Amino acid sequence: MGARVAAGVGVVALGVVLALALLWSLQRRLVYFPYQAVPAAAGVLPGSEEVAFYTEDGLRLRGWFLPGRGGDGGAVLVCNGNGGNRAMRAPLAAALSRAGLSVLLFDYRGYGGNPGRPSEAGLAADARAAQAWLAARAGVDLRRVAYFGESLGAAVALGLARERPPAALVLRSPFTSLADIARFHYPWLPARLLLAERYPSLDRVRDLAVPLLVVAGERDAVVPAPQSRRLYEAAREPKRFALVPGADHNDHALLAGDHLLSEVLAFLRGTPVLGHGTTP
After folding, report:
1. Using an 8 Å Cβ cutoff, are 213 and 264 in contact?
2. Could you tell me which residues come within 8 angstroms of residue 137 by beta carbon, excluding any fewer than 6 positions away?
3. One of 107, 126, 180, 220 is an active-site residue; which one?
4. Phi then psi dihedrals of residue 104, to 5 deg
5. Is the pLDDT of residue 11 over 80?
6. Which residue blocks in 54-200 are alpha helix, DSSP H?
7. Is 151 a catalytic residue?
8. In whole angstroms, what is the distance from residue 57 CA to residue 113 CA?
9. Of 47, 123, 127, 160, which sits with the fewest C-beta atoms within 10 Å of its C-beta?
């Protein structure tokens, strides 16, 4: 009887090990959800132009640049979340452009027809390449560039802000770390042991020294508002927290809704991006 029990335990243990090994090998497929097909810029974002730039490891990434209407150098670099592609961020770009801000939308490696496979290090390199292209663009004042990151892109934008500080930083639905978000959705998984990707935003935000706006959706089922609030509370001043009532993670209200836009533009007007202040 003891031998049978031992054998049964061994089979279960082997099954657990194999399951964890499978999860390890497939984890990036559970993090990144790229959409490949991207329509022509003119049909989605009138007035924008197709652009391309190279990463430090030689990948050619594509994006759309939309000049600000009557703007005088302020610009926004948008770091997408883990799903879709730049076409989904067109309404946000159009609204920011109407406010006088130029906008660069781009897709990470593996997204939007770009070569390569997404990874934490890869997305960081992609964001650096996008920032360098925007900084060199005629009519853009590097001293008046903001980063806007949504969800996973908030972690990417925060990492970029640590390396190359912007004039202002907007984080929409940011999480504290990928392990924390994994534990929220899969509490039975040993996330810290399994995850190769980390995105340690809570650690990174503590010594950030730029004006910060954190926006959360009241009913966000992907990144709960309390987690975004925790990140906000760990950040230095100047900072501002905005809660969008009733909004879930992928609702229009959090993509380009009136409440979101009013909070973002009011914040940016208190910084060099759209104004001359330094306090949100």
Report:
1. yes
2. 65, 75, 102, 104
3. 220
4. -110, 115
5. no
6. 90-98, 120-136, 152-163, 178-185, 191-194
7. yes
8. 17
9. 47
User: Does the annotation mark 252 as catalytic?
Assistant: no
For 35-269, which CATH class?
alpha beta
User: Which has the closest alpha carbon to 146: 129, 163, 134, 155?
Assistant: 134
pLDDT digits (tens, 9 = 90+) for 66-117: 999 987 899 999 999 999 999 999 999 999 999 999 999 999 999 999 999 9
Among residues 102, 151, 173, 228, which one is catalytic?
151
What are the boundaries of each domain within the chain? 1-31, 35-269
Buried b (16+ CB within 10 A) or exposed e, 78-116: bbbbbbbbbbbbbbbbbbbbebbbbbbbbbbbbbbebeb
End-to-end CA distance of the chain: 70
Four-residue CA torsion sign, 89, 91, 93, 96: negative
Q: What is the dihedral of CA 58, 52, 174, 162, to 10 degrees?
A: 60
Q: What are phi and psi of 227, to 5 degrees?
A: -70, -40
Identity of residue 54: Y
pTM of the model: 0.88
Give me the DSSP letters along 194-229. Answer: H-S----HHHHHTT--S-EEEEEETT-SSS-HHHHH
**Which residues sit opposite 83 in a β-bridge?**
33
Asked whether the beta carbons of 66 and 47 are under 8 A apart, the reply is yes
Q: Which amino acid is at 275?
A: G
165 backbone dihedrals φ, ψ, rounded to 5°: -60, 130
Q: How far apart (Å, rounded) are the C-alpha atoms in residues 233 and 227?
A: 10
Say whether 185 is catalytic.
no
